[in-house]
UniProtKB/TrEMBL annotation:
PROSITE patterns: CADHERIN_1 (PS00232), CADHERIN_2 (PS50268). Pfam families: Cadherin. The keyword Membrane applies. It is found in: Membrane. This is Cadherin domain-containing protein. GO terms for cellular component: cell-cell junction; plasma membrane. PANTHER family: DESMOGLEIN FAMILY MEMBER, PUTATIVE-RELATED. Residues 2-64 form the Cadherin domain. One of its GO terms (molecular function) is calcium ion binding. SUPFAM superfamilies: Cadherin-like. It comes from Arion vulgaris. GO terms for biological process: homophilic cell adhesion via plasma membrane adhesion molecules. Keywords: Calcium, Cell adhesion, Membrane, Repeat, Transmembrane, Transmembrane helix.
Length: 74
């Protein structure tokens, strides 16, 4: 999570996007290591890894190669 794309809600544990510009063409998947700890003494903690796979969305504008003409009968 070097570019701060994701964050974790402290109460629910929900992982959500912070950076709305996630682009599958640039990065197709993210591997995150998440660590939770308590406030006790000594501190107890647990670590887990999750993989987030970005699904592709057609975000490219349509293009035309050149002008076209079409005849339609009345």
């Amino acid at each position: 999570n070097d570019n701060n794309t994701f964050a974790v809600n402290n109460s629910s544990g929900l992982v959500y996007t912070v950076n709305p510009t996630v682009d599958r063409e640039k990065i197709a998947a993210y591997n995150l290591e998440i660590q939770a700890s308590d406030m006790g003494t000594p501190k107890l903690f647990a670590t887990t890894s999750i993989r987030i796979i970005i699904r592709d969305v057609n975000d490219n504008q349509p293009t035309f190669t050149g002008p076209r003409s079409v005849a339609v009968p009345e």
